[in-house]
Amino acid sequence: MDLHLNGKTAIVTGASRGIGLAIVRTLLAEGAHVTAIAKTVTDDIAALQADDRFRFVSVDLSDPARITALADEVDAPVDLLVNNVGAAPSRPGGFASITDDDWMRTYGLNTLATVRVTRALLGKIPDGGSIVNIASENSKLADPLVMDYSAAKAAVLSFSKSLSKELGPRGIRVNAISPGPVATALWLGDGGVAKAVSAAGGGTPQEVRHGAEQAMVTGRFTTPEEVAALVTMIASPLLGNLTGADIVIDGGMRQTM
Q1: What is the share, in percent, of the chain residues with pLDDT greater than 90?
Q2: Which residue among 86, 100, 174, 250 is least enclosed by CB atoms within 10 Å?
Q3: Whose CA is closest to 110, among 62, 175, 57?
Q4: DSSP class of residue 188?
Q5: pLDDT in tens, 195-226
Q6: Choice among 54, 149, 159, 221 that is catalytic
Q7: 149 is catalytic
Q8: Which is more confident, 188 or 110?
Q9: Domains (ranges, CATH) in the chain?
């Protein structure tokens, strides 16, 4: 199926690894011109630089001034903006252990970076453009181990819905994707959720992973490539009347209708 993304221009934040990297690769495969935004260049990103449809811009997305300056470094039009950047710090000490600074850092990267990048680039998004915000299953399945992250991603859903109503008359679509556990370093890496949960509650990271897999009717984690495929489908003009939606990809983890 031709998704009609060939020649379109896309911006992807948090693009150096995991879901963001998969989104970049998938959009390039669809013929899009892609600007990847992240703090550091990874080997995977460096390997893409030979493609003349790819560009990397180094941005610390926790720095508001740097995000504002981004508008001068990105050419119009921006047909697709994918706000993917985020991090899920584990809080094994519970609510009382989460300081104001912790809350602000988590909101800064998971919520305000999405708000700020959208604000900085909105003037470059043409009528008929698309914004896709990566939220989280934790937006609805709140978890005390990632309490501040859950709240921050819930705010992303509210922001997405409100913005979709404002921009709808221009034909600019705003949608969110809420992945469940994804097979990336955020969940399975040395500093990931599985290791943090096992350290807090006993057991091994492998046992934590198995428990998470058992909570999904498919019995496995979502892959980054599956999330990336969903992004490209949502971004396609073939779905021109899809806006204000939260698309869940969680292997059936959420039990509600």
Answers
A1: 80
A2: 100
A3: 62
A4: H
A5: 877 877 778 888 888 888 888 999 999 999 99
A6: 149
A7: yes
A8: 110
A9: 9-180+223-249 (3.40.50.720), 183-221 (no CATH)
